[in-house]
Amino acid sequence: MAGMSGRAQLMWDEAVTGYDFGPDHPMDPVRLSLTRSLVSAFGLDREMDVVSAKPAGESTLRLVHREDYVAAVKAASADPGSADQGYGLGTVDDPAFAGMHEVSALIAGQSVGAAEAVWRGDALHAVNFAGGLHHAMPGGASGFCIYNDASLAIARLLELGAERVAYVDVDVHHGDGVQAAFWEDPRVLTISMHEHPRTLFPQTGWPEETGASPGAEGSAVNVALPAGTGDAGWLRAFHAVVPEVLAEFRPQVLVTQHGADTHFEDPLAHLAVSLDAQRAVQVALHELAHEHSEGRWVALGGGGYAVVDVVPRSWTHLVGIVAGREIAPESVIPEGWRQEVFARTRQLAPARMTDGRWPVGWASWEAGYDPADRLDQAVVAARKAVFPLRGLLP
């Protein structure tokens, strides 16, 4: 673990926009290119090192993924018509497309490169908003995810000598692939805050999922929120669970996943969170990295299917925080970007970097809770399941 020398890193290779499941698929890569151009419109890329890492090679992919699965992805990549659905390829969620192995390995390579830069001290913070593909399993594709770049970044950190890595996932969907990859590994703490599995894919992430026994009990934390949860509840739940568990675990590096699909405009889920609350959690995770990990922070993207109105703004805020150049919520969005949005999508772009909810208020857990409130019940369930396993009072 080297000392910090370089500036923040933005991982970017234009070719990641080739991660494209087709015109009718909700994960439209325009969300990546519009984010990159909004980052540029605010001049953030001039404040950080923009780096393109090499694709993840076979030995790196094998840190998480099975050899037969990688072979199946390569075969589907060469001949999409022959995709093996037994590996989750060629399905409605994960259609096969030519070159899918190469672009998935490229995205994974950016997250692995971000982790290497932070661990070696080339950068204090690094961000790959094309990453966060958290559903991919060791042996199969799932939920729009082919290779699990988040798991691969964590596995690379362990390979480089990290002894405690914390992963915090605030996507609306459970971070099931990352939890599965490190289920038996007490060196990795996975925390996922998501819509309740009763109402949303992947139907996992119950509070009772706390890590393998024996040996890794308490290394998985799941906060399963009721559908309809808004800003105040989302922030209350985050602050009632995440800071305490991180303080006890003392991670050497923090890896975070910032799926923007918690937003009230997102078409694929049922939370009611604003851009302003998403930004508040980004700020909080940045502060937690400095508090517990000497600032070592790898930030990733994730889901998000309001591809014009939400995703570019949310992730541009994230890049600004990583760069040490926070964008004020009331900031007016540059006109050139709004024109680009209309030209590319025929949609009207948002005018400001806020949903008008800043600053977002929430009630602290320390002030007490309501046992009849569904949000508070979700927090209690998470704390009761995992806090005692970590020596904390629920």
Characteristics:
alpha/beta; eight-stranded parallel beta sheet; 10% strand; 394 residues; globular; 11 helices
3D structure, described in words:
This protein has helices at 30-41, 58-61, 67-78, 100-120, 149-159, 176-181, 231-249, 275-292, 311-323, 335-345, 374-386; strands spanning 9-11, 49-51, 125-128, 165-169, 188-195, 220-225, 253-257, 297-300. 36% of the residues lie in helices and 10% in strands. The protein has eleven helices and eight strands. Helix 1 (30-41) links the parallel strand 1 and strand 2 (49-51). Helix 1 (30-41) packs antiparallel against helix 10. The mean pLDDT is 97. With 394 residues, the protein is of the alpha/beta class. The longest helix has 21 residues, at 100-120. It has an eight-stranded parallel β-sheet with strand order 2-1-3-8-7-4-5-6, sandwiched between helices. InterPro entries: AcuC (IPR003085), HDACs (IPR000286), His_deacetylse_dom (IPR023801), His_deacetylse_dom_sf (IPR037138), Ureohydrolase_dom_sf (IPR023696). It comes from Streptomyces capitiformicae. Pathway: Ketone degradation; acetoin degradation. One of its GO terms (molecular function) is histone deacetylase activity. This is Acetoin utilization protein AcuC.
